[in-house]
Amino acid sequence: MNVLWFQSGGCGGCTLSWLGSEPGSLPAVLADEGVRLLWHPSLSEQTGSEARAVLEACAGGGQSFDVLCVEGAMLRGPRGSGRFHVVAGTGIPAIEWVRRLAERAAHVVAVGSCAAFGGVTSAGANPTDACGLQYDGVARGGLLGAQYRGAAGLPVINVAGCPTHPDWVTETLIALARGTLRGSDLDDCGRPRFYADHLVHHGCPRNEFYEFKASAERPTDQGCLMENLGCKGTQAHADCNLRAWNGGGSCLRGGYACIRCTEPGFEDPGHPFAETPKVAGIPIGLPVDMPKAWFVALAALSKSATPARVRENAHSDHIVAVPGSGRPPGRK
Questions:
Q1: Cβ–Cβ contacts within 10 Å for residue 268, how many?
Q2: In which domain, by residue range, is 16 found?
Q3: Domain check: are 130 and 216 in the same one?
Q4: For residue 7, what are the β-bridge partners?
Q5: Model pTM?
Q6: Are residues 138 and 213 both part of a single domain?
Q7: What is the pLDDT of residues 34-81, one digit of tens each?
Q8: Of 75, 89, 194, 219, whose CB is crowded by the most CB atoms within 10 A?
């Protein structure tokens, strides 16, 4: 399966993340599955005229390829011309290259939230008029349009994340190579369900603090980060805490709140990322599928039942109270 990788408006962080893949040598893993990187702007030897020749052959039909991977947002400005981002040596805007290549690809994969939804590149005033391949923020459409389908019949496959987890990219490509990825395997945002059917909250190392609503007040505290410090792990579709990054890490394991980077529009939450906006003391962003009244009732009950150990540890930067033995006092 030939894969052509195109870099558009972004930082290249998804490629950097992908290179941190854990299960052995990435080239060897891909080769074992019959996945061939036809060209990648950071990993391939072809540069300059050689790289342009590859793009021209793929766009013109002289070189067959199966999957177009796009990393980075589509920069449509100014005024729809795409001239803010022209592929060097061609005089052709990147958005035009993507359109041409997408017409010939069996599958199109958006690698990262910028390519999927616009991401950080589209934040704020968005002077470059950045968007995703098939989404413009939360709205369907984007560069290719809501009705776009690859030659194999699937819409754009959005491997969202900022950056995306290396395994999400590799497993998506392997599923395409094996012919096992179908429309039913994508969620309503076009994300592969093998990771998007989970929440970042699942497997969070702070879950005991969440259950008892024992909340952190400072970034160094061990408690739950949802109530005060902006954590949106209960609203973010990803398996970050079930499938650790680089052998054992995640944002929450590193002490930073989840910012929902796999979701469209995460880049403009309307408030500082590390703060939780509230109305009458209740966080605006509640867990998905949970009515507000239930959350309020559960929070009140949970706080009344918080063990002293959990409450004490929540406001410390290390464990200060360990779990008890469970035996009655005085019994050995």
A1: 13
A2: 2-194
A3: no
A4: 71
A5: 0.92
A6: no
A7: 999 999 999 999 999 999 999 999 999 999 999 999 999 999 999 999
A8: 75
